[in-house]
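Can't paste images in this forum, so I'm doing it all in text. The chain is below; anyone willing to post the predicted structure tokens underneath?
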Amino acid sequence: MFTENTPTEAQPEGRAERQLRLLRELAEIGMDIARAVRAEALAREDAAVEGAAAPARSRFAGADLGLVYSRVARAVRQTLALETRVSDEIETVRVERERRRQTASEIARHDRQIDIRGFVAEAIEAEGDSSDWSETKVERLLNDLDERLEDGDYDDTLADAPIADLVARICFDLGLTPDWRIWNDQDWAIQYLKDHTPTDIGAERWLHTGLEDGPDGGTDGGSADPPDAPASDSG
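Text version of the structure:
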């Protein structure tokens, strides 16, 4: 089965791979012929030394073996040269594809780092406003954030870690306690709040009554009866 990254013979790289296989096979065939010529030459030489007739069964009959060998050798050399050229072209394509992949990965990583930096900067500024920090302290934290990102402190997880986890980790490292509600338009922050905010069932019982202060703090100043409690198992 071919995957997305597996070249097929319909693709340029797939055709080049097929050409390379055929050239290698062709070169090996040429070498087989050259070996046969050599074997024939040795057999004729042995027959001449012994004063016997040339072998009756010969692949090359009365052909000039020197000429045959010269032509075969030239064909093999040309085939090997073409094989080298095709192999170099395939490697060039592979290197270029890897370079594009790395470039795209670096661009995506850079864009993500900018996004993460923006979210954490918002947390710094929001906490600075709520805690009445000085501009100097806010600026110091922003500089600390930039230094950590530039030094690669989070490169191990920057590419694929969930945004919420990265923001939480960096905020913790900076000593921040972010108010996740500042990102109420971000799905990752909304989900983080759902996953990390404990559910107070006792408080939720009163939500449908419209009372702000629980069963004893109704808007009319009087008391209000709580909704029916679940039936006891004790009977």
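DSSP finds seven helices and no strands in the chain. Residues 201-235 have pLDDT under 50 and may be disordered.
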